[in-house]
Design goal:
13 helices, 12 strands, alpha+beta
Length: about 350
């Protein structure tokens, strides 16, 4: 097949996306596909007479390493004169020329349904969930409301809007995070009033709305759902601090145990919750659900669902697939296979 792997863009998870895209493109090429790796924002500016030339050239995006801090998006915007549009030169034309588009995008513009809706309007077939499930799952406030109405437990919390002061709180300790962010960018665990305003200021740098949740001391679990079937559960144990941007993507910063040592009964409970979350949020194809297990009360709480989970060297979905005997290249093709069902 001719496949566009779309990554990068203007998201705080841009570096993560490029790492995902680079890995996916390499794996699909190794399996015999003609792959064009394209940055959503920068596009393909090199001249070409036909799309086949681009698929033959393939394309590389430089380093795919992920730093300890999220990228400088102002510097990225400065790389294009017409920075108002998030879609770069020739992106739609090349996606139309492809048999399928693999979305290796993460966060904001890319995972929030806008790109999915644009591709739908142009008749372009792509991996992952449709625009509706993507938009719902990206908004943590809406996600919590829908899950709660479906009888799925979520942490107690409130949604705050910038400028709507005085800002309330849910007591301490609590978690403060952007409403639609990813990779824990702008997230803080707050232990007292003195830390609270600073945490709000940090979160409001990224979005107009912020979620404040009751902090739950629990074991951190995550599980993928592929075509309605739950994958093996992983337990996440950061070596220091919490599972923030640095601990997610720096090799060796976090211990990830797959399958999680939680017993068969709890594994089944976690997997069943993830399947219910996927259905409630109208997510297609595949996703990854993050779940807390409060062992003192023996309760599960869903934190969020990721509709385009990472495929980097440290990412979790590839680890789950490996536990099922599926290598990285097979996983990439499986994602395309289950995503094609949207169009049947």
């Amino acid at each position: 097949m001719k496949i566009v792997v779309l990554c990068g863009g203007l998201s705080n998870e841009r570096d993560v996306s490029i790492s995902t895209g680079t890995g996916v493109a390499k794996a699909l090429r190794a399996r015999g596909h003609a792959v064009a790796l394209i940055d959503l924002f920068l596009g393909w500016s090199k001249p070409f007479d036909s799309a086949d030339e681009v698929f033959a050239a393939g394309g590389e995006l430089g380093t795919s390493e992920i730093g300890e801090l999220s990228p400088d998006l102002d510097a990225v915007r400065a790389m294009r004169e017409d920075a108002e549009c998030i879609v770069g030169a020739n992106v739609l034309a090349l996606c139309k020329a492809a048999d399928f588009t693999f979305l290796a995008l993460h966060g904001e513009e890319g995972e929030n349904g806008k790109v999915q809706a644009l591709l739908d309007l142009h008749g372009i077939r792509y991996t992952g969930s449709g625009y509706l499930g993507s938009a719902i799952a990206m908004n943590k406030g809406l996600t919590k409301a829908l899950l709660r109405s479906s009888g799925i437990s979520v942490p107690d919390g409130i949604t705050l809007t910038r400028g709507a002061v005085p800002y309330g709180n849910v007591g301490f300790p609590c978690v403060v995070k952007p409403c639609s962010g990813g990779s824990s960018v702008g997230t803080s665990i707050v232990w007292d009033e003195s830390e609270y305003l600073a945490a709000l200021e940090l979160a409001f740098r990224y979005e107009e709305q912020v979620i404040v949740e009751t902090y739950i001391k629990a074991r951190e679990l995550t599980v993928g759902v592929m075509d309605g079937a739950a994958m093996p559960v992983i337990e996440i144990i950061p070596k220091t601090g919490f599972y923030d941007y640095k601990n997610k993507y720096q090799s060796g910063a976090t211990e990830e145990i797959c399958p999680a040592p939680i017993g068969e009964a709890m594994t089944a409970r976690v997997q069943e919750m993830a399947q219910r979350v996927t259905a409630a949020l109208m997510i297609d194809a595949y996703c990854r659900c993050d779940i807390l297990w409060d062992t003192q009360r023996d309760e599960l709480f869903c934190l969020e669902a990721n509709t385009l989970p990472g495929m980097t060297p440290t990412s979790l979905i590839p680890q789950m697939a490996a536990a099922q005997g599926m290598d990285y290249g097979e996983l990439c093709e499986k994602i395309i296979e289950v995503s094609r069902k949207k169009y049947q």
